[in-house]
């Protein structure tokens, strides 16, 4: 009975302009489990805007009925700075124009700053140590630099997310099936989430690298080891995931409604919302080193030979890159093949590909030697 909507002012980027975050809160502040959801951190990824737009009234209704057992904090749009970045009518998203880099990389590692607030060490009892670390994390976030508008914005998001049990960061790929990334230790939660949301692909990271938003929130629980006495007994008490709700153009009410219902089902299964959850078994997950990312060594026009969602064989032709400078178009094609057997689940939406572009992703069942650990799916 406590749905509230709050505006959080962001630092003004220029005289006469203002930006703000909209924060929806459901349930009881301080109640557990706490869920934090946000959409479109990369700004140009809009399926999550639609999903959370459908989720808000569902949560409001559940709240009215007294069914929210924990606390839910929802940001219907995470990145007003990125939403404001337009060039020639397009919203490129992903990178900050001010040079601060990828909006979903280089989030701070709060472990050392949090450790400084726990000089007495942990007790070895998770019931005591989890609240202790959460309190230290809130203090560490309050100490973050807010010098630039991006610094200030990042600190606001973390102040809302850092003590959550679940951090659900909703993104999308370019042309893609729904999939999600999380740490390998959270495989069971991820499988339930995938089952609840009809998400066919779960990708497990050991050391994701890049300091994405989900890893900033979840990964620090394991990064406390060695910094605070008895930290090795800490559970990973924050499940962080990057939920990719298909491709950029998959923005419609049908998907929005379905994805919102899936998130509701998941939160019921996790005891955040009261209700009946059906059996959530989930798909067999993939490890990141089992995902082939197929690169175009040279740039050119692309002709796809396989469709997203297709099960492909090792060696199967995925696309051809056409050299449009060639004198003879009949001798100007470079094949791109899958190096694994598996599900072709994502591809770029560009049709004129720059050299070096990661064109396609295929999730298979064998570890691939060419995949680099700690580089997400970027190498
Ligand atoms: Zn993204």
Any overview of this molecule?
The protein is α+β, with helices and mostly antiparallel strands. The chain has 2 domains: 4-284, Aminopeptidase; 289-364, OB fold (Dihydrolipoamide Acetyltransferase, E2P), CATH 2.40.50.100. Helices cover 25% and strands 25% of the residues. It has a 9-stranded mixed beta sheet with strand order 1-2-4-3-7-11-9-10-12, sandwiched between helices. Strands 8, 13, 15, 18 and 20 form a 5-stranded antiparallel beta sheet that branches. The chain has a 4-stranded antiparallel beta sheet with strand order 17-16-14-19, with no helix packed on it. Helix 1 crosses helix 9 and helix 6 (187-197) crosses helix 9 (253-269). The protein is globular and about 70 Å long. The model has no long low-confidence stretch (mean pLDDT 95). Bound molecules: zinc ion.
Describe the structure concisely for a colleague:
With 379 residues, this protein is α+β, with helices and mostly antiparallel strands. The protein contains nine helices and 20 strands.
Helices and strands, with pairings:
Layout: E1 4-9, E2 20-27, E3 34-39, H1 47-64, E4 71-75, H2 80-83, E5 95-96, E6 101-102, H3 111-115, H4 126-142, H5 149-161, E7 166-171, E8 175-176, E9 179-183, H6 187-197, E10 201-205, H7 213-218, H8 220-223, E11 239-244, H9 253-269, E12 286-287, E13 291-295, E14 300-304, E15 311-312, E16 317-322, E17 333-337, E18 342-347, E19 352-353, E20 358-364
Helix pairs in contact: 1-9, 6-9
Bound molecules: zinc ion.
